[in-house]
């Protein structure tokens, strides 16, 4: 029988596509209830009522899909609260008719391309954290770029890299290169310094946005802001 | 003017507002949006020091006396630039229109610059309005908000064919400074509305115009920086970066400043307080006191007194042709001839 802890674990696999962080650690899950009969009710909140509708939709839809994959779940209700397009998004997710169904005539298609764009940015940012740690530890550019997937540390950051690679269709067998460009081409030793400079900017952007989102959420819902400089693992 | 440790800083605040978001000004049927908008702004104020927070009632509509005290008396601002924001779908007389801003500016000659606006969805009528506004207010700049709603449309792009005649018109009328604020909605909704590439296109085809990207393209700082390194006429507007990060997230602030100084450079960064979201005083004082927190930032460009002077006022003064008192300028090295750009500024006065 699925209980609340299972549902929260499932919601922990849902990432804010723009920030590449789980919606649970971002505290976007306001409440999560499971009835004795297996009905699940999830309420979501965002830092501002004006957060971009496309990302808001993806998080709500992904939350529903994640709960749907759990065993013995009956009715699922996912409600995005306090958002200017919440009504459209909630209705469309309830009906299951996609982003275009939420905003008829206002889109050219679904959100796959948008999602892929942010997977690419997230992969760059995640890999660069690992690379920088290795470089700080004394590894040369040649040593870093020679590493294989099997050499990656077994931690959440590296596991997320592999997930992102899978989303982007980049092979991740043990013998594949550990660090790749978003199109799957291995990073060359000679390009590493330049790549890290670009990657650090992307990472800073993601982290600063995450910081602003956390601050705004804390102010909006009057909740404590535990670690002001918190960075995703 | 702000003075600290014997250094004097000319302060030009390139992003200020005098808005009316009081319930009396909410459009009937749109109250939810009007209220939501100003509450969202108010939450941003919460990212500044607690002593500078206002109650929501004052935040919705503050007085002229508040403005004068916060900006001129306490805020050290020598010259401020009004970035007009209309939002007439939600606010009956507009949020802070050129007209409202110009009334305030008229009371403070030489201290306030009023920027206009245009919206490509207004077509020919919009072009005529821009001509009229340029004549009435002597516009040197405009503020564009690409996420503004208009007759069922939820935004527009700067590289659209409809925007082109407006950019040409700006050139024609000598409106050289185009402040752009990307927002969360744009047609089509499935694209990234914050992507600044449309600004890139416009900046390339209009080298005579300066494009000041407000809030440094937040949340797409990286896309903005990659663009700004390639476009000599693209500038970084620092509002929200200072107000939203310097106090609340000092370490991220240091990283963002380091990246901006590296990619964009101190000659193309403009201070903006975004008053009344945040008062200028603590931002000016904080920026002058600021430096990188530790040696892990050693590969970023240095942040010097000269950097601070440029960013706090001299860069914006150059863009707007504002005369800076001699004692507040940077010393010109005797062996360095004045640049061609400087000569043009002098001639056009």
Q: By helix and strand content of chain A, what is the structural category? A: mainly alpha
Mean pLDDT metric of chain B: 94
Strand content of chain B: 5-15%
Main beta-sheet strand count, sense and barrel state of chain A:
3 strands, mixed
SS field, number of helical segments of chain A: 8
Oligomerization category of the chains in this entry: heterodimer
Radius of gyration of chain B: 19 Å
Number of structurally distinct domains of chain A: 2
Strand ordering within the main sheet of chain A:
3-4-5
- How would you sum up the major sheet of chain B? 5 strands, parallel
Contiguous helical run count of chain B: 13
Mean pLDDT of chain A: 94
- For the termini of chain B, the CA-CA separation is 23 Å
Distance between the termini of chain A: 30 Å
Question: Regions of chain A with pLDDT < 50 over 5+ consecutive residues?
Answer: none
Q: In one word, what is the shape of chain A?
A: elongated
Structure classification of chain B: alpha/beta
- Greatest interface and its residue counts? A-B, 40 and 40 residues
The proportion of residues forming helix of chain A, as a percent range, comes to: 40-55%
Order of secondary-structure elements of chain A: HEEEEHEHHHHHH
Would you identify the CATH H-level superfamily of chain B? Metal-dependent hydrolases
């Amino acid at each position: 029988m699925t209980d609340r802890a299972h549902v929260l674990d499932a919601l922990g696999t849902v990432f804010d596509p723009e920030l590449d962080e789980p919606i649970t650690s971002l505290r976007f899950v306001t409440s999560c209830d499971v009835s004795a009969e297996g009905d699940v009710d999830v309420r979501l909140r965002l830092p501002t009522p004006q957060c971009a509708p496309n990302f808001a939709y993806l998080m709500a839809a992904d939350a529903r899909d994640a709960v749907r994959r759990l065993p013995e779940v009956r009715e699922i209700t996912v409600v995005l609260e306090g958002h200017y397009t919440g009504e459209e998004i909630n209705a469309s997710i309830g009906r299951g008719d996609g982003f275009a169904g939420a905003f008829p005539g206002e889109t050219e298609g679904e959100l796959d391309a948008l999602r892929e764009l942010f997977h690419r940015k997230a992969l760059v940012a995640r890999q660069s954290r690992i690379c920088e740690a290795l470089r700080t530890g004394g590894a040369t550019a040649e040593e870093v770029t020679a590493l294989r997937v099997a050499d990656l540390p077994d931690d959440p950051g590296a596991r997320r890299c592999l997930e992102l690679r899978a989303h982007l269709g980049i092979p991740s067998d043990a013998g594949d290169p550990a660090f790749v460009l978003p199109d799957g081409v291995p990073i060359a030793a000679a390009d590493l310094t330049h790549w890290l400079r670009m990657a650090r900017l992307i990472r800073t952007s993601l982290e600063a946005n995450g910081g602003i989102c956390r601050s705004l959420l804390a102010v909006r819902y009057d909740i404590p802001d535990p670690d002001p400089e918190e960075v995703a693992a | 003017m702000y003075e600290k440790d014997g250094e004097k800083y000319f302060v030009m605040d390139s992003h200020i507002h005098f808005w009316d978001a009081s319930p009396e000004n909410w459009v009937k049927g749109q109250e939810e949006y009007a209220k939501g908008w100003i509450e969202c702004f108010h939450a941003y104020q919460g990212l500044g020091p607690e002593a500078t927070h206002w109650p929501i009632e004052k935040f919705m509509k503050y007085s002229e006396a508040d403005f004068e005290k916060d900006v001129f008396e306490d805020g050290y601002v020598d010259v401020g630039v009004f970035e007009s924001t209309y939002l007439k779908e939600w606010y009956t007389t507009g949020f802070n229109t050129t007209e409202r801003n110009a009334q305030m500016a008229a009371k403070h000659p030489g201290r306030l610059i009023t920027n206009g606006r245009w919206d490509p969805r207004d077509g020919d009528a919009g072009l005529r309005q821009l001509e009229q506004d340029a004549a009435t207010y002597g516009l040197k700049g405009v503020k564009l908000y690409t996420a503004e709603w208009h007759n069922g449309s939820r935004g527009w792009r700067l590289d659209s064919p409809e925007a082109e005649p407006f950019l040409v018109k700006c050139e024609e009328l000598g409106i050289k400074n185009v402040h752009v604020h990307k927002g969360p909605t744009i047609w089509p909704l499935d694209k990234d509305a914050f992507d600044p590439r449309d600004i890139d296109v416009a900046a390339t085809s209009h080298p005579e115009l300066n494009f000041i990207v407000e809030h440094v393209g937040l949340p797409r700082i990286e896309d903005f920086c990659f663009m700004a390194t390639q476009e000599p006429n693209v500038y970084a507007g620092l509002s929200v970066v200072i107000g939203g990060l310097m106090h609340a997230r000092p370490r991220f602030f240091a990283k963002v400043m380091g990246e901006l100084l590296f990619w964009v450079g101190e000659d193309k960064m403009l201070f903006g307080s975004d008053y009344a979201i945040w008062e200028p005083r603590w931002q000016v004082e904080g920026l002058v006191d600021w430096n990188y927190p530790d040696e892990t930032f050693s590969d970023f460009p240095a942040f010097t007194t000269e950097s601070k002077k440029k960013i706090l006022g001299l860069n914006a003064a150059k863009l707007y042709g504002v005369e800076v008192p001699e004692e507040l300028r940077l010393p010109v090295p005797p062996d360095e001839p004045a640049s061609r750009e400087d000569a043009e500024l002098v001639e056009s006065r």
